[in-house]
Inverse folding.
């Protein structure tokens, strides 16, 4: 029971941390932590599953992830650009990979009229940041 309470408290704290980072620069996407699990076969790493909801025309701030990220578009279309790569618009059912430390320059809903939803799976250390805003 204590483990469950610890896990629940950790999820709440992480959710607040992600939300604070995302909203510190104004209204942004809705981020929901779906799962946060230490990996038994990879000591010192955890898997994190996040759902990102964008309202029509909404975008994320430029950022980087300390961990490795894999994204899958659940609904709508998402435009994404990682530093050094071309901007690409992904449709529902399409996906991409971001290496740890990649600078995510563009992440936005491609539509001004329809919502979009993204599922992100990350692998990172418990002390690494999920989203780190880039400094201009």
């Amino acid at each position: 029971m204590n483990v469950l309470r610890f896990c629940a408290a950790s999820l709440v704290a992480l959710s607040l941390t992600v939300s604070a980072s995302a909203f510190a620069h104004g209204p942004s996407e809705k981020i929901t932590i779906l799962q946060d699990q230490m990996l038994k076969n990879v000591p010192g790493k955890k898997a994190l599953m996040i759902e990102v909801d964008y309202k029509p025309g909404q975008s994320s701030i430029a950022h980087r992830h300390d961990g490795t990220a894999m994204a899958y578009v659940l609904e709508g279309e998402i435009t994404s650009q990682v530093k050094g790569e071309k901007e690409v618009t992904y449709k529902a059912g399409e996906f991409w990979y971001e290496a740890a430390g990649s600078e995510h320059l563009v992440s936005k809903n491609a539509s001004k009229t329809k919502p979009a939803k993204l599922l992100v799976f990350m692998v990172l250390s418990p002390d690494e940041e999920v989203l780190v805003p880039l400094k201009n």
Remarks:
- The domain at 2-133 is CATH 2.60.120.10 (Jelly Rolls).
- The first strand starts at residue 30 and ends at 38.
